[in-house]
Design goal:
By secondary structure, the chain is of the alpha+beta class. It is built from three helices and 24 strands. The protein has four domains: 48 residues; 87 residues, conserved putative lor/sdh protein from methanococcus maripaludis s2 fold, CATH 2.40.420; 87 residues, Beta Barrel (Elongation Factor Tu (Ef-tu), domain 3), CATH 2.40.30.170; 126 residues, Beta Barrel (OB fold (Dihydrolipoamide Acetyltransferase, E2P)).
């Protein structure tokens, strides 16, 4: 009897336990299937969303430059002329020749002047003798004071004339005013040199500079020692610094002059046109965006689209920004964004505020 009762009790207790196990197993299976279904739905949703590419905002260096036009110049560029006329007796240099300061270049014939000097010398000797005689007589109180003074004046006048003539004869030889290169020689032996006519050009390429005019808009930004790059198309480009800043604004074109020294080994030549790039801003850590990503709304406000959120599925947010200087294809962003923001760079023209998008992962 007892054994029959015990068996029935075991059976009665076993049935609910089995039901509980089966129920729990069924619930676990349902939850797993629901999770898998949710993931599948999310994946399907992401696949169906419009795909966009983003650029993450990270700190980067930024420099700004502006360009002005200039001219290569040198103060040691002399076109030499003769001071008096005469036949060219000798040309002592050739084009391209290196000369030092004081080197004879051209000699003008001085035969006429030499004859005049000889005549003056004869007159001077006579005047010297007359003066000495009058001086002796004057010391002996013989003769008049007028005769003594006339003899003295005549002597001094002839001495001055002879000295002037000798100086003119010295100028008959044209000499280099400084060391340089004979760039052009117009003098030809036997030709007549007219006073003031150019005969030789001497150029020194060791002391060249670029002179440029800068708009008064940049007057407060240009300073001595400012970094610059000088570019002559088809020749060369060099880096230098501003050597001088003018202190006067030209009222005709509202510009001020600056000059930039050039190294001695540059390939530039006087009167070449040059582009001068001046760097007025340099930042080691800045927020920079390609200018093509920045748009304007109907109010004229600048904005970009930012992909908000985490993961592949994001929400599009229209973000107003303020930009500063531009450099090439980039813009300096001064406000509106933060480092780490994802700015939509691909497909930005096909999205709207609040739209869900899927990030391109490749």
């Amino acid at each position: 009897m007892n054994s029959i009762y015990t068996a029935r009790m075991k059976t009665a207790l076993g049935i609910p336990a089995m039901i509980l196990v089966l129920t729990l197993a069924g619930c676990g299976s349902s939850e797993t299937e629901a999770g898998e279904s949710s993931e599948a739905n999310e994946s399907a949703k992401a696949t169906s969303l419009f795909k966009v590419g983003v650029s993450n905002i990270a700190p980067q260096a930024f420099t700004h430059r502006f360009s002005v036009q200039g001219n290569v110049e040198t103060d040691r560029n002399a076109l030499l002329t003769t001071e008096f006329g005469g036949a060219i007796e000798e040309v002592m240099v050739r084009e391209g020749q290196q000369v030092s300061e004081g080197t004879p270049l051209v000699r003008v014939n001085t035969d006429v002047m030499e004859r005049s000097a000889s005549e003056l010398q004869t007159q001077l000797e006579l005047a010297q003798a007359v003066f000495e005689r009058q001086e002796r007589l004057w010391k002996q109180s013989i003769g008049s004071e007028i005769e003594f003074l006339q003899a003295k004046t005549q002597l001094e006048s002839l001495q001055g004339s002879l000295k002037t003539l000798e100086e003119q004869m010295e100028m008959a030889v044209m000499r280099a005013p400084f060391a340089g290169v004979v760039d052009r020689c117009l003098a030809k032996t036997g030709e007549f040199a007219v006073p003031g006519s150019p005969l030789v050009r001497i150029v020194d390429l060791k002391d060249m500079y670029v002179r440029a005019s800068v708009s008064d808009h940049y007057a407060g930004k240009v300073s001595k020692g400012m970094s610059a790059e000088v570019i002559v198309s088809g020749v060369d480009s060099i880096r230098t610094k501003v050597g001088r800043v003018g202190q006067f604004i030209n009222p005709a074109n509202r510009t001020l002059e600056i000059s930039l020294p050039l190294p001695e080994d540059s390939k530039f030549l006087p009167n070449m046109y040059a582009s001068v790039w001046l760097q007025d801003l340099s930042l080691d850590s800045a927020m920079v965006l390609p200018s093509a990503l920045v748009e304007q709304d109907i109010n004229g406000d600048e904005f970009v689209f930012v992909a908000e959120g985490k993961g592949d599925v994001r929400i599009v947010r229209k973000t107003l920004i303020a930009s500063g200087m531009g450099s090439g294809d980039n813009l300096l962003i001064t406000s509106g964004l933060a480092f780490g923001d994802d700015v939509i760079s691909r497909g930005a023209n096909r999205v709207v505020e609040g739209q869900e998008v899927n990030l391109i992962t490749d």
